[in-house]
Amino acid sequence: MRWTPQRRALVEVLANSNGHVTGVELVERCRAIDPETTASTVYRTLDVLEEIGLVRHSHGHDGREEFHVLPATVHGHLRCEGCGATWEIEAEEARRLTLTLSRERQFLVNLSHLTIVGRCASCAPA
Fold first, then answer.
1. Fewest Cβ atoms closer than 10 Å to its Cβ: which of 1, 43, 81, 112?
2. Burial per residue of 17-27, b for 16 or more beta-carbon CB atoms within 10 angstroms, e otherwise
3. Are the C-beta atoms of 117 and 111 separated by less than 8 Å?
4. Is the pTM of this model over 0.70?
């Protein structure tokens, strides 16, 4: 890949991102740095960065792709349908949650695509 100003802008945006960020947000942030940035350049570059392990994608509650920069481990998510809050399910906790599927159905869950939707303690009574 050529080292273009648009790709340089994406790397800069990623370096300044914490947690999860959507592709749309990345495109907008890149365009703030370089208005010539195209969505296709951002997504193609994200594919390459994911192949080499610098980003990992998952899917949010609404199906949107979200990118996590330099993830230490693969993890799943909890999402409250009441308030919209989200929490990460760390790899070991997720492994325990998916063990039954693995044992009884011989099905290995891709944790980066696991989101469990429910209600948090504050929203449960509502």
1. 1
2. beebbebeebb
3. no
4. no
Nearest to residue 123, comparing CAs of 69, 86, 74?
Answer: 86
44 and 80 assigned to the same domain: no
Q: How far apart are CA 101 and CA 107, in angstroms?
A: 6
Same domain, 83 and 62: no
Structural domain boundaries, residue 91: 76-118
Last-in-domain residue among 50, 69, 88: 69
Is residue 107 within 8 Å of residue 101, measured between CB atoms? yes
CATH of the domain at 87: 3.30.1490
For residue 49, the surrounding DSSP H or E stretch is helix 39-51
Q: How many domains does the chain have?
A: 2
Q: What is the pLDDT of residues 44-93, one digit of tens each?
A: 999 988 888 788 887 766 667 788 777 667 778 888 989 988 888 888 88
Burial of 70 (0-12, 13-18, 19+ CB in 10 A): exposed
pLDDT at 116 over 80: yes
